[in-house]
Amino acid sequence: MLINPATLAIVDDHPIVLEGLQKLLTNVKSIQITGCFTSGLAFMSFLKENKVDVLLLDITLPDANGIELCREVKALSPDTHVLALSNHSERSMILQMIQNGATGYLLKNISSEELVACIQEALSGMITFSKGAKEIMARPSISELKGIPQLTKREKEILHLIADGKTTPDIAQQLNLSPLTVETHRKNLIQKFQVRNVAALIKIASQQGLL
Amino acid sequence: MLINPATLAIVDDHPIVLEGLQKLLTNVKSIQITGCFTSGLAFMSFLKENKVDVLLLDITLPDANGIELCREVKALSPDTHVLALSNHSERSMILQMIQNGATGYLLKNISSEELVACIQEALSGMITFSKGAKEIMARPSISELKGIPQLTKREKEILHLIADGKTTPDIAQQLNLSPLTVETHRKNLIQKFQVRNVAALIKIASQQGLL
DNA sequence: TTATTTATACCTGTTTTCAGGTATTTTTGC
DNA sequence: GCAAAAATACCTGAAAACAGGTATAAATAA
Fold it and tell me: Which residue ranges does the record assign to the HTH luxR-type domain (chains A, B) (predicted)?
């Protein structure tokens, strides 16, 4: 099974973490650490020249935020598996990282065996979470799920059309309704979600998975 | 380890699937099937009277869509672990289910051993995926990640404020800018994302994890 | 240092949205 | 069958957004 060891890079602004991870992973034969960086910019220029199979990425960085960096990495090098390595234990943060192309999410309290196992799983093309992250993901906050207004069929329909950039006259024509009717539905949507305008409406609807 | 077997319910509009799952799970001592339903409505009324530890939920249903049903289930009974069981293999679909409170996602080509393992993992309070689902999750579509316009610091700032429901005058005051300047940024945002109005802008920005 | 991008600001006119209502006809649930 | 909810439609006036420009200072990259 020893063809070529997988290349691994680490981005973390704490040198101590960098040191620790290196020590943990040096005696793993199947993994070769090819670079350690304390800034996103430095890593990106490295990535342009070198192949990286796995990236361990801290989310909080001095120059850029990890979520955007993750997306940039995947856009430049889609085959690089990005594993977020973070203290952030909010469910929404984990979801955002995954949405932006991360192959996994590891909490920093991870054990060394678990770390290696997760890297292996990522290398084999699967999403992976540390135990702690799995537990967080299984516990959706009730507030996220409750307090979601109940929409009628028509309201959902119109919500989607609004989100697609359609204006009231557009929607009225498409659904063969009076523009005044569409306005009423729009107003009810804004009222039900307790927001001020469509911008906030679309944001909340999108975050709650209604679009 | 045999205190009380976990209660499990199944919602799927194909009776054959219902039969098959029942057969697969009857000889598992730690799991007790307490109900099988072919419609979301029927299950919801059952859930009001009975405790359900795990729900195997098909996404495509005649009366409601599984994503919304999942949210309703979690709102009514937060301790019920919902495992999506589906043929849908789109990454976005999986993410939506998770965002709406699902504890896991299983593709229907799952093996019986894997199914039991996933149910056990869900019962122990962790998110879980079938092998196939893990692979899909690890492969973000490139189109999702590329083609994202590059925004300046100011534009990001204003994008967030717009998403929060702030109007141009609001934003101008908050950032000590001329409303006309804010209008320009707003216009540039709409142009960069190639959309018609803020509604579409916020939708796309939200889906790309920029909010 | 020069060229480009970014951030700033302005102008005009049209369209759309939003706030504040009222009101009738269908559905749907009990 | 009756009550409630949903879908329909209307009205007015103010506020905001959008389309279509132009233009200049400051910062940044080549």
Answer: 144-209
Q: Does A67 touch chain B (CB under 8 A)?
A: yes
Q: Do A103 and B138 touch (CB under 8 A)?
A: yes
Look at chain A and report how many structural domains it folds into.
2
Chosen domain end from B98, B118, B142: B142
| Residue B189 lies in domain | 147-207
Q: Are residues B136 and B155 in the same domain?
A: no
Contacts of B144 in chain A (CB under 8 A): 101
CB contact under 8 A, B134 and A142: no
* Digit-coded pLDDT (tens) for A3-14: 688 999 999 988
Whether residue B157 sits in one domain with residue B85: no
Is A146 in CB contact (< 8 Å) with chain B?
yes
CATH of residue B202: 1.10.10.10
Boundary residue ending a domain (A91, A109, A142): A142
Residues A91 and A134 in one domain: yes
| The amino acid at A163 | A
User: Between chains, do B101 and A145 touch, taking CB under 8 Å as contact?
Assistant: yes
Shared domain check, A201 and A162: yes
**Average pLDDT in the A156-162 region?**
94
Protein residues with Cβ atoms closer than 7 angstroms to any atom of nucleic acid strand D: A 150, 152-155, 175, 177-178, 180-181, 183-185, 197, 199; B 162, 167-169, 183-184, 186-187, 190, 196-199
B195 touches chain A (CB under 8 A): yes
Amino acid A1: pLDDT: 52
Size of interface A-B (CB pairs under 8 A): 145
Q: What whole-number percentage of chain A has pLDDT above 70?
A: 95
Q: Which nucleotide lies closest to B189 by the C1' atom and the CA atom?
A: D18
Which of A42-51, A56-65, A130-139, B60-69 shows the lowest per-residue confidence on average (mean pLDDT)?
Answer: B60-69
